[in-house]
Amino acid sequence: MSGLDKVVGSYEEAMAGLKDNMTLIAGGFGLCGIPENLINEIKRKGTTGLTVVSNNCGTDDYGLGVLLVDRQIKKIVASYVGENKRFEQQMMNGELEVELTPQGTLAEKMRAGGAGIPAFYTATGYGTPVGEGKEVREFNGRPYILEQAIQGDFAIGKAWKADRYGNLVFRRTARNFNPMAITAGKIAVVEVEEIVDVGELDPDDIHLPGIYVNRLIQGNFEKNIEQRTVRAR
Amino acid sequence: MALTREQLAQRVAQEFRDGYYVNLGIGIPTLAANYIPDDIQVMLQSENGLLGTGPFPYEDEVDADLINAGKQTVTMLPGASIFNSADSFGMIRGGHVDLTVLGAFEVDCHGNIASYMIPGKLIKGMGGAMDLVAGADNIIVVMTHASKHGASKLLAECTLPLTGKHCIKRVLTDLALLEIDEGRFILRERAPGVSVEEIASLTAGELEIPDDVREMVL
Question: Which superfamily, per CATH, for A20-116+151-218?
Answer without folding.
Answer: Glutaconate Coenzyme A-transferase (3.40.1080.10)
